[in-house]
Design goal:
By secondary structure, the chain is mostly helical. The chain has one domain.
Length: 113
């Protein structure tokens, strides 16, 4: 004997399981992209490379680049260390033009500051 009432319950349960699996999968994928985005950003690369981690062969290539390549952040750090070792400090700040200082002092006299 066939009971049509149980088939709707089974269909409803199956729909719920599929829907919850899809939602969980989307949340996991978004979470992974955010994590990889942060990793690539901290390494000095574009954070959008984190999206490439979803492509099957490309994710292995990108992990190898992260593991064995020289990160842009370290290139900048080494450059700054070389500048300090050679005696160069940070570039001097640009001087404020005297015309601006004169204009500000006429608007706000020193006694009001």
């Amino acid at each position: 004997m066939y009971n049509s009432g149980t088939s709707t319950v089974n269909t409803g349960a199956l729909t719920g399981i599929i829907l919850s699996s899809v939602i969980f999968s989307l949340v996991a994928i978004i979470f992974a992209v955010v994590i990889y985005w942060r990793i690539f950003s901290k390494a000095g690369y574009s954070g959008a490379l984190g999206i490439l981690m979803l492509i099957p062969i490309d994710n292995i290539v990108m992990l190898c680049i992260l593991a064995f390549g020289q990160w842009p952040i370290y290139k900048e750090l080494n450059y700054l260390r070389q500048q300090v070792a050679q005696g160069h400090q940070y570039p001097p700040s640009p001087a404020v033009p005297t015309s601006i200082i004169t204009a500000i002092s006429t608007i706000w006299p020193a006694s009001t500051i």
